[in-house]
Amino acid sequence: MRYCINCCIHLLPNDLHRQCFRCRGPNHNNQKCPVCKEESKIPLYTDSKQMKLLAVLEVRTDHNESWNGVFCLRKGKLCSLIFGLIIMTLVMASYILTGAKHGLLLIPSPFHYGAFTSNPSLMDNESLSDMKDHYQPSKMNISYIKDYPSIKLIIDTITSKIEFITRQRPDSEELRKQEPHMFSVIPNKFLPNSKNPCWYEEYRGNTTTDPYATNSYALYSKRFRTIFDYLRKVFWNHLYHYKDKHYRLRCLPHFYIIGQPKCGTTDLYDRLRLHPDVRFSAIKEPHWWTRKRFGIIRLRDGFHDRYPVEDYLDLFDLAAHQIQGVLQSEAAKEHGKMNNIVIGEASASTMWDNNAWIFFYDNSTEGEPPFLIQDFIHAFQPNAKLIIMLRDPVERLYSDYLYFASANKSVEDFHEKVAESLQLFENCMLDYSLRACVYNNTLNNAMPVRLQVGLYVVYLLDWLTVFNKDQILVLRLEDHASNVKYTMHMVFQFLDLGPLSEKQEALITKSPASNTRRPEDRSLGPMLPTTKAILRDFYRPFNTKLAQVLFDDAFLWKRT
């Protein structure tokens, strides 16, 4: 027999007793109930046998309603309850995810955004009304200006630690010890009848040998294999035969576009390669000097086999074939015609990226790299020409963020990444020199945005320790965008290129701009005014020094 613990009625095996949930009400009298009378404990029975091994269930009679009724619910109701809890959990998860993006979470962000009112001069004399035109506070009317003073303190600490100290230039013997193979491949002198640095190198392979079989650029990148397939087909047609030996013409670039990223280097490259006297490497940005020669393909992937200098030289074979055609022409042989074709290379990392030094060079200089990229380039090409394109570092950083950020991009996210990066940079400056922090691989990888790339003057001063100022042309993207013809003429003059016809010049200067901002990035609009003010404060001392070095106040970027 079974008992209902609410009403003490004996239940038959087939009796569902549907009313038991509400049966025990105020009219129930324990004294009159035949089962409850003089009994406070009820034994449970199963199949007409008392369960002696189990403890008895004490029936409490001092409450009108009991939670035990829940156990009598139908299975369908229980499933509905569980389903409802799952739906509620999903709704809350959706709220959290979407709320984080739109700033609707109840938990406040550690970094806040919005226009500040205490110091209107922080925006380069922009008034508060100008800032409101740029950015309206959200409808929630949340004020975030209280965090600006703490960020300003971080910037003040960084500024107080800035010292522009001239680095010690290493001698040639030290460089040879670091890269002996490179010095064994590249000669000290180049062909006298070529404007571009080139030389002949003996080729010891035979007709069945693939000259590009081990080239790392071809092995690791599918998009370069088409280029090398073509080079294989024409390779033997461009060998120079002399006294039963085969020679190939090798070349290095005559000039380098060394930086900076997101400053218009792609547009400059696309226009400059239209000049009839200019050729470029088979790949726009080989990144050999800064990354590939150390075995870096992507920093997040770790190190691979180092790309030897021969792999880098292979990238200039197409241009070398054309230079060789000029050198072996009848005019060159009879009248000593000079080759005026020059080769360029446009890796935008060349100016600033020395992150790999810590893994390969001795760290005995208190965190500062003992050797930089420019030391090796100058060792082989003391007459090389360098072109640098810069832009307002504040706008460069935002453009860099929009280009490289993969998901959840927003002006608020950019602001928080800037604040975090500033704090990391401050921590480094408290213990190390400015140069050590700028070239610090660990710091640069930890910062959510690449603040250090905009410290143009730090890199420029280091390049000026090995190259003369007249070998470096520094341009501004703002000037290039407003007057392409003027900046291109400056480049042509700097490289001493031949004259152009009107048609050629029109093609170069009127072609549309390259590598502009993507439509989905433009839809985000400008950065927050507070973020811009913070970055202006951070970059101001570096821009001031840059303007002094270049004798040009335009590099202050007061109004851009």
Automatic annotation (TrEMBL):
Residues 253-517 form the Sulfotransferase domain. It is an enzyme of class 2 (transferase). Residues 508-527 are annotated as: Disordered. The keyword Transmembrane helix applies. The lineage of its organism: Eukaryota, Metazoa, Chordata, Craniata, Vertebrata. GO terms for biological process: hexose biosynthetic process. It comes from Amazona collaria. One of its GO terms (molecular function) is N-acetylgalactosamine 4-sulfate 6-O-sulfotransferase activity. Gene3D superfamilies: P-loop containing nucleotide triphosphate hydrolases. This is Sulfotransferase. It comes from the Eukaryota. Pfam families: Sulfotransfer_1. Keywords: Membrane, Transferase, Transmembrane, Transmembrane helix. Its EC number is 2.8.2.-. InterPro entries: CS_Sulfotransferase (IPR052654), P-loop_NTPase (IPR027417), Sulfotransferase_dom (IPR000863).
